[in-house]
Write a structure and sequence with these properties.
The chain is of the alpha+beta class. It has helices at about 15-25, 40-50, 120-130, 135-140, 185-200, 215-220, 255-265, 305-320, and strands spanning about 25-30, 55-60, 70, 75, 85-90, 100-110, 115, 115-120, 145-150, 225, 230-240, 240-245, 250, 275, 280-285, 295, 305, 320-325, 330-335, 340-345, 345, 350-359. The strands form 6 sheets. Strands 1, 2, 3, 4, 6, 19 and 22 form a 7-stranded antiparallel beta sheet that branches. It is globular.
């Protein structure tokens, strides 16, 4: 494996692994590897990262909503949302300016049924949309996308989000300060500073709002609402497409499909965007994420994406997708700039680990 990775003698980022990813659409599936534990997987990804100036580096989460529990060095659990919850195609954590370049999945235990990981080429999807719905791509570029992310005050297990806003990987202190030593006012001021820092990582600066040459998402930046329960709702504005770093081609880079699909499943396209949950209670789509969150970033207010454009993207994703069926020991390496992935529902026990890397 280390022979595929970056070497100290490399003069650019075109390692054998990078060449394989580019030649195979951005995904490589290793089948039935002799790995049986989180530590085995950790050893594998560290060898895969390579050495030298062009080696991969571990991704450091910032503003992370999803709960990821450490299992070994550079190895964490995947999304803890219930098996019935559909997570559709997305590039990893593209709702935020802090996202990994590479996602590596490792399968420990296959479920009784279901649980496949569909993947689709973001580059091919961009190409098709450019022909069929060029207005959608233009909106993703010149306006960008708006996502409202709801953070819980503390860790909540077994949910789609649930990381907790005061974690270091979210918006908590990064200087070693204990969150318990801070007053409520100090906690909130710290969260607001880190939200502003995240917006700046994405390209927003205070003077951006007056620069007519910048796209809407960059001029608007982030908004947030500190809730009475200690959590926070943050509206991120980010581009919906990017340029692939080695192929130099346009690529879809967003998470719109998940919101579209869940709105379709729950029939929440129209106000008040509510649905009846399994226990008979009324639920709001994706907890404070109504269908209206599938929006372009406008200068004064956000603009809904026309439903036919979303339907076309969904049609193309289904037509272009491949389904990865899992066996114990399998590993899937994804270039997140080139490939979107999803998660099919399953029954039975399913254990999958992940590792996230940058270049």
């Amino acid at each position: 494996i280390s022979a595929l990775a970056a070497q100290p003698s490399d003069i650019n980022n075109r390692s054998n692994l990078r060449k394989l990813l580019d030649a195979n659409g951005g995904a490589i599936n290793f089948k039935r590897m002799p790995l049986r534990s989180a530590q085995d997987f950790s050893d594998f990804v560290q060898a895969l990262a390579g050495k030298g100036d062009h080696s991969w580096v571990p991704h450091q989460d910032k503003g992370m909503q999803v709960l990821r529990k450490p299992r070994a060095k550079y190895v964490v659990t995947t999304n803890e949302g219930p098996p019935t919850h559909v997570i559709m195609w997305h590039n990893e954590y593209t709702v935020s300016p802090s996202y990994p370049a590479y996602v590596i999945f490792f399968y420990l235990t296959p479920p009784a049924s279901g649980g496949e990981t569909p993947i689709v080429s973001s580059v091919a999807l961009y190409d098709r949309l450019e022909k069929d719905v060029p207005e959608f791509l233009e909106g993703c570029k010149s306006k960008g996308l708006s996502y409202t992310i709801s953070h819980t005050a503390s860790q909540v297990d077994g949910t789609v989000g649930g990381n907790g806003v005061y974690k270091t990987s979210a918006f908590g202190p990064i200087d070693g300060t204990s969150i318990d030593s801070l007053s409520e006012e100090e906690k909130r001021r710290g969260v607001e500073r880190r939200i502003q820092d995240l917006a700046e990582i994405g390209g927003w600066h205070e003077e951006s709002q007056n620069d007519a040459n910048l796209p809407n998402w960059q001029r608007r930046g982030f908004d947030w609402n500190l809730r009475d329960d200690g959590g926070v709702d943050i509206t991120h504005r980010v581009p919906g497409v990017r340029m692939h770093p080695t192929k130099r081609k346009g690529t879809i880079f967003n998470a719109v499909a998940t919101r579209y699909t869940n709105a379709k499943i729950h029939n929440t396209f129209e106000p008040p965007h509510t649905f009846i949950q399994e226990d008979g209670s009324k639920g709001v789509y994706l907890v404070r994420l109504p269908v209206t969150e599938k929006q372009f970033a406008g200068l004064e207010k956000n603009e809904p994406i026309p439903k036919p454009w979303l339907e076309k993207m969904d049609e193309l994703q289904n037509a272009l997708a491949s389904k990865v069926a899992w066996e114990t020991g399998d590993i899937l390496i994804i270039d997140s700039f080139a490939v979107q992935h999803a998660r099919w529902p399953w029954s039975g026990d399913r254990k999958i680990l992940a590792s996230f890397w940058d270049e």
